[in-house]
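User: I'm putting together notes for a lab meeting next week and I want to include a structural view of one of the chains we've been expressing. I don't have a solved structure, so I'd like a prediction I can at least talk through. The sequence is below, exactly as it appears in our construct file.
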Amino acid sequence: MDLTEKRLDGELKYKGVIVDVVMDRAQLCDGSVVRREVVRHPGGVTVLPVDDEGYCYCVRQFRYPLQKLMLEAPAGKLEPGEDPTECAIRELSEETGFTADKLQYLGRCCTSPGITTEVLHIYLATGLHAGSSHPDEGEFLSVEKHHIDELTELAMNGEIDDGKTIIAVLKARQILNLV
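Assistant: Thanks for the context. Below is the predicted structure for the 179-residue chain, given as structure tokens.
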């Protein structure tokens, strides 16, 4: 059975700084027509920096939509046409000050495929070299050092509830053979 939904047309409802919201009409596999709200997002990256002793460098920042401080792997939005690896290098430097000898691609994450086009590319950074962070204007965060065992426990017990960070920690732990 072909489950594909065919876009018939759409109307831009909101044009934002980061996202656009579109109301599409789509034809379902049974021929019926439905409306689909789509948040168009340029996508982004997350990068988990891990040192030789298994310590990870995360950022704590206030997330306005959830009205809370969150512990997260460094991350950022892709600029138009930007290569995800270059974005990961930039975000790692901006948010933590680190450069890395090796960036390993851990895969993609579709953040909420029922509503948004956002895709995050996840990286593991090793062979770290310290430098000075330089966050974007209006970006306020603190860098925290946590062992990957602690981050795994925090993710598993729900104290870290940021999806990209959970995925990055669990995949990095597996790849680094720390399971």
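A couple of points you could mention at the meeting. The mean pLDDT is 95. The first helix runs from residue 84 to 96.

User: Perfect, that's what I needed.
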